[in-house]
Design goal:
The model has no long low-confidence stretch (mean pLDDT 81). This protein folds into four domains: 2-32 and 324-546 and 835-1004, Multidrug efflux transporter AcrB transmembrane fold, CATH 1.20.1640.10; 36-131, Multidrug efflux transporter AcrB pore domain (Alpha-Beta Plaits), CATH 3.30.70.1430; 181-264 and 703-783, Multidrug efflux transporter AcrB TolC docking domain, DN and DC subdomains, CATH 3.30.2090.10; 661-697 and 787-828, Alpha-Beta Plaits (2-Layer Sandwich), CATH 3.30.70. It is α+β, with helices and mostly antiparallel strands and 1017 residues long. It has 30 helices and 30 strands. It is 53% helix and 18% strand. GO terms for molecular function: xenobiotic transmembrane transporter activity. The chain crosses the membrane at residues 12-30, 331-350, 357-377, 383-404, 436-458, 464-486, 522-541, 841-860, 867-887, 893-912, 950-972, 978-1004. Keywords: Membrane, Transmembrane, Transmembrane helix.
């Protein structure tokens, strides 16, 4: 085929040029995002039910929802968590479930359940989790001094949000920190009492004054009109001018007996930026949008906002595109240094400037054509797919060097230019195909991992397969064509001989080769002993998901563990920020209940998340220590967690699930075990190191007990008492004013006093208008209760989290404890998912090794020779482990990718070495040289032939990666473990390919014996 194509260089050149043009066109249409669009197989149903206890939310809301969802297709698990005023149900599906259909089905079931849910509760929100739900940037909106906060909330909701949503590539704009304007009606209790008015008279007057006609129409000749009442309320003054009729028929204006004014609604949460109350807008991109095009539009829009709305300050924070830019920069760095060092190494080893030019053309050409594969497989350009391209670049350079070196060698042997290009490619063609297939055999099966990891590996596997397949196309067609064209008018003398450096290296190689083969058995045994020694270094490695990245920001998650309101929570955070003034550059906090539509975390008024950005690592560490001391001294009961602020990767990979959770249920009552009884039970718990799960966390509460006998004696109804309590303590909604799409609630407000004073100062009216103080019928007691009620498919459970390394060793003891206490127990947590992933990984690894063996057996037509390649892999892996340990690097996702890169190159070198030995043995037999003599000649000669490409590819790859070690920043931190893996593996791997392969081949050939080597040429 090569011969045919080289005979038509113009046609081949034009075909490649057309491929490049089409690839560029397709590249321009590819979406660019931070992460691939992954549907996490979870749906969260969020419930917001103001003024409701966790027990009531569980009983009246979450339990009916759970029971209604159990028949969903593909449902794997269902859990719920009820808190004060809020709750959520988390639905987990099989990973193969079509989440679009599941989302529709969940919403349909919620609509069917509406009649069985409380009438006064808003419809539950259904949130579907997707990698595109992670915001790409946050916009801070800070009202200036004296500006009405409610007006800024309306501006954000009606203008800023809509203008951002109109930008190309923006899918959703989410807001937190909004506060709505309300009309507050505060009764003047002494005046009302003196005039004989009751709160119910005031409420009735406002409701009557805001009534609308229910679609009544009148005819006027041939025209028909809909009626509306002209008395409809519009302003606070209209409310104040309403007449209120008392029980004795007397009428006064409402403003005479109550204060009516515009104010802000009672907040359940706040957002602070640099300690100031503000709003935050999170921007989410469309799946097919290009992040690098969307982000400039957002920055441009914010500049226009600053001009159009000078009464408000704007600032963008937590820009996630920095991660994508780091990935693109890493790829550019790999290309630049890969080409630069390939040029330098080729020139040093060959002394010919045309060779580097050929590689300089082939590298970007391969990369551009790879994007055509992205287009057909619907893969976006993201950090994962870019890392796959970077992974394949090492193999691409490897293939290019091997092909060019072989063509050059044929020229040195006397072949004509045309014949050298044809024979040089044909000799290594099958070996290169096998090396690519073996690399894919190691890597592609990882796609079948379940969960998010498998979905991420899909993009990486496609990108690796794309660039490796294209690298073969380039190596077999474009490289010989470029070589043919560049050397067409040059004679054989233009191919310079080996450089002095390489001749010295070759001399050293031969000397060491002969020494190894003076006692080949001992040499092979030493190399085999190195395998367990090197692999043993894994026990010193820390295992983690992502490499530790130097971050100058922290996220502080707080739970005050006190029944405080949102305003007190805000005041405490502001006081904390005052203590840290000048020690941070950016401070951002979400306090209390979040208003984000896509927020699926815990929502509680006494909780807060504080984000701090620092100028350097020292300030970050000092403030972290200061925070710990601050809470120990001033708020010892508070729970605080200080951790690095999560980026998009952390948000996707992190799990809120505990590592090992013991769940127990009361089989008799089907309800939570009370705090006192539970404390007694846990004294006998077999594991000492445990922490409470959500269902065991306690909080203070006030219990109102009504005296029903006294109510009946005084002729009062229970509903009267309940209505009075709702008006007194709740944020009581009287009615709404609706105009021009804006809704202004009218709410009843009471004095902000302690509940005991309010019960004494407020009254309930019985027969003939006799007033009785509320505290006559209510007894208040303080008590502790559980802050959350947790449940799963089979009902309410409580749990503890075990903080030990081997939790499964206590399973039998825990089961015995549960039986003795009349509890049922089961185990859950991330530990079991990790164990399942490890089992899958081991299974996939075995499949990969089998595929590798079968491909090599077909290539070598031998059942023994593939074992040589397989045994080279542990040496490379051990070398990588050793370097990771020496550099203090953990075993993580990036270092694992580095292992795959390194193994791909190692396998390539070993395959070509064995293929060359086999080919030389056949040639020697054809010339009458057989047996041990043919074997020794082939081993010696193959070492000479393959030395240059093996050393060149290893040095080129290592030198291309070395700059990352000395670089700083997010991209370098992510890539550094990969670099150490490759450097460690290739250092040992190069030595393995040079000496271990011939030694192992020598003994597996069955023709071993004493060996004598001369200068075999």
């Amino acid at each position: 085929m090569v011969k045919f194509l080289l005979s038509r260089p113009i046609a081949v050149g034009m075909t490649f040029l057309a491929l490049l043009i089409f690839s560029v066109i397709m590249f321009r249409t590819l979406p660019i995002s931070l992460l691939p669009p992954i549907d996490v197989p979870q749906i969260i149903i969020k419930v917001n039910y103001p003024n409701t206890s966790p027990e009531s939310i569980e009983r009246n809301v979450l339990k009916p929802i759970r029971e209604g969802m159990v028949t969903l297709n593909g449902l794997q698990d269902i859990e719920s968590k009820a808190g004060s005023e809020v709750g959520n149900v988390r639905l987990t599906f099989d990973f193969q479930t079509k989440m679009e259909l599941a989302y529709i089905e969940v919403n349909e079931k919620i609509d069917r359940l509406t009649n069985s849910l409380p009438d006064d509760m808003p419809r539950p929100q259904v949130v579907r989790i997707n990698s595109n739900d992670i915001p790409i940037v946050r916009l801070q909106i800070i009202p200036k001094e004296g500006v009405d906060y409610a007006e800024v909330s309306l501006l954000t909701e009606n203008v800023i949000k809509k203008r951002l949503e109109q930008l190309d590539g923006v899918a959703l704009v989410n807001i937190n920190g909004r506060q709505e304007r309300v009309i507050a009606v505060t009764p003047n209790k002494p005046v009302m009492s003196g005039l004989g008015f009751m709160e119910s008279d005031l409420v009735q007057a406002i409701q009557d004054g805001n009534r609308e006609l229910p679609g009544i129409s009148v005819e006027d000749g041939q025209f028909r009109y809909y009626l509306r009442l002209a008395s409809k309320l519009e302003t606070a003054e209209d409310v104040g001018n309403l007449p209120v009729r008392g029980p004795e028929g007397n009428t006064v204006l409402l403003s005479k007996i109550a204060k009516v004014n515009h104010t802000l609604s009672k907040p359940t949460g706040y957002h602070l930026f640099k300690g100031k109350e503000s709003l935050v807008v999170t921007v989410h991109k469309q799946t097919a949008a290009k992040m690098n095009e969307t982000m400039p539009l957002i920055y441009e829009a914010v500049e226009l906002f600053k001009e159009d709305y000078p009464q408000v300050d704007f600032e963008l924070t937590q820009d996630q595109s920095s991660l994508l830019n780091a990935g693109i920069n890493n790829l550019q760095t790999s290309l630049f240094f890969g080409g630069l060092f390939a040029f330098a190494i080729l020139f040093v080893f060959m002394g010919n400037y045309r060779m580097p030019i050929i590689i300089g053309i082939s590298l970007p050409a391969s990369l551009v054509i790879s994007f055509m594969v992205f287009y057909f497989f619907n893969i976006s350009i993201n950090v994962i797919s870019l890392s796959g391209l970077a992974l394949g670049l090492g193999m691409l350079i490897d293939n290019a060097i091997i092909v060019l070196d072989n063509i050059n060698r044929k020229r040195e042997e006397g072949f004509s230019l045309f014949e050298a290009c044809v024979v040089g490619v044909n000799e290594v063609q099958s070996a290169l195909i096998s090396s690519v297939l073996t690399t894919l055999a190691v890597f592609v099966p990882l796609v079948f991992l379940s969960g998010v990891a498998g979905a991420l590996f899909y993009d990486q596997a496609v990108s690796v397969a794309a660039i490796l397949s294209v690298s073969l196309l380039v190596a077999f067609i474009l490289l010989p064509l470029l070589y043919f064209l560049l050397f067409k008018n040059k004679d054989k003398q233009s191919v310079k001989e080996d450089s002095r450096l390489f001749r010295g290296m070759l001399k050293g190689y031969k000397l060491l080769f002969k020494r190894f083969f003076t006692r080949p058995g001992l040499s092979l045994m030493v190399l085999f002993l190195l395998i367990p020694l090197l692999l043993a270094s894994i026990q010193f490695l820390k295992v983690e998901g992502l490499p530790p990245v130097e971050k100058f920001d922290v996220l502080i998650s707080l739970d005050w563990n006190e029944p405080i309101n949102a305003s007190q929570n805000k005041n405490r955070i502001q006081h904390l920020l005052e203590q840290l003034e000048g020690k941070f550059t950016v401070a951002e906090s979400d306090i209390g209940l979040r208003q984000f539509i896509l927020y699926e975390g815990e929502n509680a008024i006494q909780q807060a998340d504080l984000y701090l950005m620092f100028a350097n690592q020292t300030d970050k560490e000092n403030v972290s220590r200061q925070l710990q001391q601050f809470f120990i001294k001033q708020f010892p009961q508070a729970s605080i967690e200080i951790k690095d602020a999560p980026n998009a990767f952390d948000q996707l990979f992190s799990s809120n699930r505990p590592n090992f959770e013991v769940r127990f249920k009361n089989t008799e009552t089907k309800r939570s075990v009370g705090p006192n009884q539970m404390n007694a039970l846990m004294e006998n718990f077999p594991v000492k190191d445990w922490s409470k799960g959500p269902g065991l966390q306690e909080g203070a509460s006030v219990i109102f007990k009504t005296d029903l006998e006294k109510l009946a004696l005084y002729g009062l109804e229970v509903n009267q008492l309940i209505t009075s309590i709702e008006r007194l303590f709740g944020d009581y909604l009287i009615t709404d004013i609706r105009q021009f799409g804006e809704i202004i609630p009218i709410r009843l407000r009471n004095d902000q006093l302690d509940f005991q004073s309010l019960l004494k100062r407020n009254f309930i009216h019985g027969e003939e208008g006799v007033a009785y103080a509320l505290d006559e019928f209510i007894t208040a007691n303080y008590d502790t209760h559980y802050k959350f009620v947790t449940a799963d498919r089979s009902g309410i459970f409580q749990s503890v989290n075990l903080n030990i390394t081997e939790p499964t060793s206590y399973e039998d003891e825990i089961r015995s404890w549960a039986v003795n206490e009349n509890l049922t127990v089961n185990f859950a947590g991330q530990y079991f998912e990790d164990q399942e992933t490890i089992k899958q990984l081991i299974g996939i690894l075995m499949v990969s090794i089998l595929l590798l063996y079968f491909i090599l057996a077909a290539q070598f037509e031998s059942f023994l020779q593939p074992l040589i390649v397989i045994f080279t892999l542990p040496l490379g892996v051990g070398g990588a482990f050793l370097v990771l340990w020496l550099t203090g690097t953990s075993l993580n996702v990036m270092s694992a990718i580095g292992l795959v890169v390194m193994l791909g190159i190692m396998v390539n070198d070993a395959i070509l070495k064995i293929d060359t030995i086999n080919r030389l043995r056949v040639n020697y037999r054809a010339n009458g040289i057989v047996g041990k003599e043919a074997l020794t000649k082939a081993l010696y000669r193959a070492g000479e032939i393959r030395l240059k490409p093996i050393v060149m590819t290893s040095i080129t790859t290592i030198l291309a990666l070395v700059p990352v070690v000395f670089s700083a920043g997010l991209g370098a931190d992510l890539q550094r473990p990969l670099v150490f893996s490759v450097i460690g593996g290739l250092t040992i791997g190069t030595f393995t390919a040079l000496y271990f392969v011939p030694l192992a081949y020598y003994f597996l050939s069955g023709e071993s014996g004493s060996v004598k080597f001369g200068d075999e040429r």
